[in-house]
Write a structure and sequence with these properties.
By secondary structure, this protein is an alpha/beta fold. It is built from ten helices and twelve strands. About 30% of the residues lie in helices and about 30% in strands. It binds S-adenosylmethionine (SAM). Pathway: Amine and polyamine biosynthesis; spermidine biosynthesis; spermidine from putrescine: step 1/1.
């Protein structure tokens, strides 16, 4: 019998993928974790029934949460990822030779453990083999409270604002992030779908503008996320992602990126009108 998995994007719309088998299904103290094998998108991780990553389209999300900030900051050395227990963001950060240390702070140890076991193409740098990577199983809020003025970049690779991630969309958290960044630091956070999550975006960008002098939204196309149109918030103390972007440095990158490139970096910040309106001050 065929196995079909549906994630509901709203009350009336969803995405359905044909699956062949369940590789893991279990509950942590924080959430339900399932990893299933799909026919078209490879292995797929779900948290509380929502798609987190698939092997086929994860390159879009992980390129775009990491490289725009890594190529805007002139010399990122210390990078923190909050969430991101699948390891995909850390894998991309590790492509940058300037980065001396990347810290992963993921609240759920089960996500890390099962990603290492079942999603090795993403978790390749969080399995203990990379001396530049440090893992902390902790709440991101608690971690940054203890690590002020410490990072060049902070990437918030979190779940939606429900469950353990609620606090990661609030102004108090952004103030802690601001303090945990060095004086020219940059934060990037996944900021949901402009198509389905206008209200979340409105609040999130208002909270960010109350804390950071530079706040911009950029977009990426991710087929398995609601509507396919996804967004990221770029919040910065000093560097602007378009005006201070060194296009030649990005063009000369000594590694391959399947989605990110120096032209797309600039284009991603050009928003459709309805998305601009979602975050209008
Ligand atoms: N790419 C995904 C997306 O946008 O749908 C997100 C990746 S998923 C691995 C995000 C991770 O954030 C989850 O593993 C979850 O446990 C973690 N997370 C949620 N709240 C957190 C918190 N307060 N501190 C640290 N990690 C958190």
């Amino acid at each position: 019998m065929d196995l079909w998995y549906t994630e509901k994007h709203s009350e009336n719309v969803g995405i359905t993928l044909k699956a062949t088998r369940t590789l893991f299904s279990g509950k942590s103290p924080f959430q339900q974790l399932d990893i299933i094998e799909t026919l078209e998108y490879g292995r797929m991780m779900l948290l509380d029934g929502l798609v987190m990553v698939t092997e086929r389209d994860e390159f879009v999300y992980h390129d775009m949460i990491s490289h725009p900030a890594l190529f805007t900051h002139p010399c990122p050395k210390r990078v923190l990822v909050i969430g991101g227990g699948d390891g995909g963001s850390i894998r991309e950060i590790m492509k940058h030779a300037t980065v001396e240390e990347a810290v992963l702070c993921e609240i759920d140890g089960l996500v890390i453990e099962k990603s290492i076991e079942l999603l090795p193409s993403m978790a390749c740098d969080i399995d203990g083999s990379n001396p530049r990577v440090t893992l902390h199983v902790d709440d991101g809020l608690a971690y940054i409270r203890e690590h002020q003025d410490a990072f060049d970049l902070i990437l918030v690779d979190s779940t939606d604002p429900i469950g353990p991630a609620v606090g990661l969309f609030e102004e108090d958290f952004y103030r802690l992030v601001h303090g945990a960044l060095k004086k020219d630091g940059i934060m990037v956070a996944q900021s949901e779908s402009p198509f389905y999550h206008a209200e979340i975006q409105k609040n999130m960008y208002r909270n960010l503008r109350n804390v950071f002098p530079i706040v911009e939204m950029y977009q990426a196309f991710i087929p398995t996320y609601p509507s396919g149109l996804w967004s990221f918030a770029f919040a910065s103390k000093q560097y602007h992602p378009v005006r201070d972007f060194d296009k030649a440095r990005a063009a000369a990158r000594p590694f391959h990126t399947r989605y990110y490139n120096e032209d797309l970096h600039l284009g991603a910040f050009m928003l459709p009108t309805f998305a601009r309106e979602n975050i209008a001050p």
